[in-house]
Amino acid sequence: MSLRPDLAVIAAHVDPGSRVLDIGCGDGALMLALRDAGCDVRGIELDGACVERCVSQGLSVVQGDADRDLADYPDKGFDYAVLSQTLQTASRPDRMLDELLRVGTRAFVSFPNFAHWRTRAALMFGGRMPVTRAIPVSWYETQNIHHVTIKDFRELARAKGATIARDWYFAGERPVVRAGANSRAEFAVFELAR
Amino acid sequence: MNAHSQTLTLPGPLLLDGGGELARVEVAYETYGDLNADRSNAILLCHALTGDQYVASAHPITGKPGWWERMVGPGKPIDTARFHVICANVIGSCMGSTGPASEASDGSAYAMRFPVITIRDMVRAHVGLLDALGIGTLHAVVGGSMGGMQALSLAANWPERASRVLVIASTSRHSAQNIAFHELGRQAIMADPRWNDGNYYGGEAPDNGLAVARMAAHITYLSEEALTEKFGRNLQDREAKSFGFDADFQVESYLRYQGSGFTRRFDANSYLYITRAMDYFDLAEEHGGKLADAFAGTASRFCLVSFDSDWLYPTSESRHVVHALNAAGAAVSFVELSAPHGHDSFLLDVPALDRVIGGFLG
Lengths: 194, 362
What we know:
The complex is a heterodimer of chains A (194) and B (362). Helices cover 34% and strands 26% of the residues of chain A. With 194 residues, chain A is an alpha/beta fold. Chain A has one domain (5-113, 145-193): Vaccinia Virus protein VP39 (Rossmann fold), CATH 3.40.50. In chain A, helix 1 (5-13) packs parallel to helix 2. Chain B folds into two domains: 4-174 and 282-361, Alpha/Beta hydrolase fold, catalytic domain (Rossmann fold), CATH 3.40.50.1820; 178-275, Orthogonal Bundle (Rna Polymerase Sigma Factor, Chain: A). Chain B contains ten helices and twelve strands. Chain A: Pfam families: MetW.
């Protein structure tokens, strides 16, 4: 099974043998890839069925709420903290970013870009909250409570004193260049350090 | 299935947390599956309060199947075709390991002369057994309820002895509510005139008190949902209420049956000593008040499992341990499983538990 594009980028750029915390690890796809690369990888996941699947594959995953439970992890206990497609579900994404850079020396963050042209078009011409390939769930049942754009995220990182070490952009499976990414990319992946 | 029943006499006295020692300690245990050549495939299974070593073999008194036969055996989640499973009766108990019913040096039963023991004392006896068996590092230590306390105690005090630590429906400390229910049970036993300050061996045992203790405890092992589902307000073998104090309701009849059945296989003094050991259990207290310090530097992998209907050792207790393990940087998994049966869920048919255990043990 091939990894989702943002996870594939992260898996390819984590140094082998690192200590990694995957926050919102889902069914453990990234964790398995990182374990194969010799990483010591841990996960946090809210959904019990996902946790059960992870544990039954021998992964170390704690069922919990990242908004609350990250506080239990020691400072710089990990080389990397990974937050894939979860930032926009956090109750306070700004605090979550602080926590990421506290528990990890570096952080990978991926999220759907709300400024993608399809999203803009849905709002501008349809006058409705967008339901797109990247944001597939209706406004009333989506877990995405803090929609964010690539520009917004860059600004948040700057305000938090984080440096963007590397960045990647995608439309579906296809990479998109940085120039114009805020309207052309459906997803972004950032590697941060502080 | 093929089991080996054996009893080991520890080579020296067992030093106890309470300050004293037990001079001659016997540990009765069962094993299942073969130990491999490099002695690396052993799993120590720790039993609960009223459990015993007959995890997957018929109970010698009741003849009933082992208490975890659904989990332990060839091809089962704890696979005896691959692992050498050891289950030892805890000291203080009454199924062959040294306890209050055992003979003291003067030839009569210890009764209440038996020293008050702790969970760590029980584990110390287990470690003595492992030493005698030549098993250095266990593939895993596994336990539910009080068995989970033993697993945590082994991990904290003998961290090099187990590569994996699996703790199900358990806690790192007894809560006020836990202690309260145990005290109710103990007082029921002590209020039985036949208890006679513990000196009833050779005569009639305080079965009435012990049965009440078991009935009260049994309620805590279930959930309101399970009781309602199983019994509701159904009457027992009658059309109408009797306007008396017979067991009119099915749930009364069930509890009475549980209570009287228990007295056939369990010693009242053992019940006093083991519940006391559980009440004294506070792993943080043993390690300077900070639970994370109990696990500092551990290289073991941990897995904790709780059940959403367990109000005796609720999910918050497992989370408390998980938080400490995270703070200690330990490799830990935790999952709260959904099951309707309350605390007893760990003994019953919960397929998700089978998958988690099988996956964690590898």
